[in-house]
From TrEMBL:
InterPro entries the record matches: AAA+_ATPase, ABC_transporter-like_ATP-bd, ABC_transporter-like_CS, ABC_transpr_LolD-like, MacB-like_ATP-bd, P-loop_NTPase
Region of interest (Disordered), ranges: 1-21
Protein name, as recorded: ABC transporter ATP-binding protein
Entry GO CC: plasma membrane
Gene source species: Cellulomonas triticagri
Keyword Nucleotide-binding attached: yes
Domain of life: Bacteria
GO molecular function: ATP binding; ATP hydrolysis activity; transmembrane transporter activity
Amino acid sequence: MTTDRPDLVAPRADPTAPPGSTALLELHDVERSYGRRGPVLGPFDLAVEAGSATALVGRSGSGKSTLLDCAAGLVTVTRGSVRFQGRDIARLPEHRRAALRCEQFGFVFQDYTLIDALSVAENIELPRRLVRRPPDPRRVAEVAHSLGLGDLLHRSTADLSGGQRQRVAIARAVASDVRVLFADEPTGALDPITRDEVISVLLSPSVRASRAVLIATHDVDVAARTDRVLVIDGGRICAELLHPAPERVLAALRAVEVDR
Ligand SMILES: Nc1ncnc2c1ncn2[C@@H]1O[C@H](COP(=O)(O)OP(=O)(O)OP(=O)(O)O)[C@@H](O)[C@H]1O
């Protein structure tokens, strides 16, 4: 890893948050391997705090999605621990991890993953239904209004534009008061103007309040809107940039290429 470049900041040696910090997620010595191949991810440490927004950038195949999936308990780690509010979710049986994901984690993907047979309100309500919690129309309306969807509640999501559909996906992800929001290429299918609108929603105070947001993206402009950009290469976190301009993110990505 290069640390002597002015455009790169070395990741903290041990970013695990100290006692009393607001770290929601702490990944320690994490690795993920498939079959007999060496690890496609890790080893690395990472702490994610409430109210923070972190972007993961790196070339295709560098491990961004695998990192998100391990942090969210969608993929099991082959080494290390993934602690959510102090509890190691990597050691939980799958059914308990699935329940925790439904209650505490929200997901936003490039392809929206909405159910077009349902209305906007019904899509937003879906996670609550899945964990058999009673409907909460007031909360649905409140979230929809805060994300500019107030007039669309009864429309089918099939009728909406890409930007509106992604807003619905974000509303669905946050309506049940999850603590961590995972977004994998959330703006990958959008034009630049709609992308800026959607990222503004994703990073708005109402979405971030007491919640951590983790975004995997190829878009340096999206990454530069977050507080912290982690450059991933070969499955490892090889640089950390705090509040960088897009040009700095691009330079860090180029530096990684040169060092390969
Ligand atoms: N189920 C799997 N089985 C085997 N290898 C896998 C599996 N999932 C991911 N990988 C490998 O892990 C590595 C990281 O993949 P990952 O999808 O995390 O990269 P990425 O940075 O998100 O890529 P992209 O930007 O193209 O989405 C790749 O080499 C990929 O081939």
